[in-house]
Write a structure and sequence with these properties.
Oligomer: single chain
Structural class: alpha+beta
Radius of gyration: 22 Å
CATH superfamily of one domain: Barwin-like endoglucanases
Strand content: 15-25%
CATH topology of one domain: Ribosomal Protein L25, Chain P
CATH class of one domain: Mainly Beta
Shape: globular
Helix content: 25-40%
Order of helices and strands: HEHHHEEEEHEHEEHHHEEEEEHEEH
Largest sheet: 9 strands, mixed
């Protein structure tokens, strides 16, 4: 990378602070790199990345982004387009990069309750307070707080999968006749999610390196009574909204209200990465990845400039892949070239 110069870096941070919502600080370092420094850049399928970029770039408000979006529409050489109009920017707070995976769950369910389908998926109650925490998961599930209020979107057959549906924040319910109900995030009860995996480690049931989503699911299903109590350790509770007219073959809607693309859409911390921006990802691990992603989603656990969550698809197979991803690496935000260099050329700004 190009050597860091503290005065230039601070000037750069001041210039791009509006992009990050004012979240930058002296602890954040910024370096502008060259494309030749990106491992795997030459071999990338830039055309596929450009198609995903075009799905959301028109929703970006700054003029420079909108201008680049217009230029991107008829590009015959996507690689050259990115290299001509962007520069890779490495933003770090010295914490190591951490990259995980997430997916769109698909549950079996029904529009009406039956002996099999008896666990309700709720929409947001109309009287939910916005300025203070509401009832906990335990209270909601044990005191019938949401019962008889016509808030059920559907009923599903597995409370463990329903819990993980709430963690993911979106999903599908496949009905007995084959139709699919698409679900999007509708809101939550104002209480933070607590890690169930961390609780199993605290109790001495597993060691930290043994815990994954599948391990948690298996333990809860083997221990149904203790398992339900374990899930209630997390007081957070997520509500959904039904999304009509979203084709079955499209991915779920991300934070930009556009369908996500498998292995191209990335959830980021928008304080540091503008939603809609291209992001070059270099993830280590068993499933190493060198890929141009697009920042099209966010997540409550995705915090920091080197934190990303990779959308890996829909269904159980995607869920197994997502649960196995927890790797180090690094990512570069591709910024419009003038935005990347203006502050560096004016260090007194």
């Amino acid at each position: 990378m190009i050597p860091n110069v503290s005065a230039m870096v601070r000037a750069f941070l001041m210039a791009i602070a509006p992009v990050f919502g004012g979240a930058v600080s002296a602890e954040i370092s910024v370096t502008v790199a060259e494309f030749r420094q990106l491992s795997g850049w030459q071999e990338e399928d830039h055309q596929s990345a450009l198609r995903v970029f075009l799905k959301t770039c028109s929703d970006m408000k700054p003029k420079d982004w909108r201008s680049l979006c217009a230029l991107a529409v008829n590009q015959k050489n996507p690689k050259l387009f990115f290299e001509m109009f962007f520069r890779p920017v490495f933003i770090s707070n010295k914490a190591p990069g951490l990259f995980t995976g997430y997916f769109e769950p698909e549950l079996n369910g029904s529009r009406t309750p039956t002996s099999r389908f008896r666990y309700p998926v709720y929409k947001l109650p109309p009287n939910l307070p916005k300025d203070r925490p509401w009832f906990t998961r335990r209270e909601i599930e044990t005191q019938g707080i949401l019962a008889n209020r016509n808030l059920e979107i559907a009923w599903v057959d597995d409370p463990v999968e329903l819990f993980f549906l709430q963690i993911q924040g979106s999903g599908r319910v496949r009905l007995p006749d084959g139709d699919v109900v698409r679900l999007g995030y509708g809101g939550f009860n104002g209480r933070r999610y607590k890690s169930i995996g961390a609780e199993l480690v605290r109790r001495g049931i597993y060691q930290d390196h043994q815990v994954s989503a599948q391990v948690i699911k298996n333990w809860v299903k083997r221990n149904p009574v203790a398992g339900r109590e374990l899930l209630r350790h997390s007081p957070g509770f997520v509500f959904f909204r039904e999304i009509p007219n979203l084709p079955v073959y499209d991915g779920p809607l991300g934070a930009m209200n556009r369908s996500l693309t498998t292995l191209r859409s990335l959830a980021v911390d928008p304080r540091f990465v503008p939603l809609g921006a291209p992001v070059w990802l270099e993830k280590q691990g068993e499933r190493s990845l060198r890929r141009l992603m697009i920042a099209q989603d966010t997540g409550s656990a995705i915090k920091g400039p080197q934190r990303g969550d990779i959308f890996v698809g829909t269904g159980k197979a995607a869920g197994r892949v997502a649960g196995s991803i927890k790797d180090t690496g690094r990512m570069f935000v591709l910024m419009p070239i003038q935005r990347a260099y203006t502050a560096l050329l004016e260090p007194g700004r």
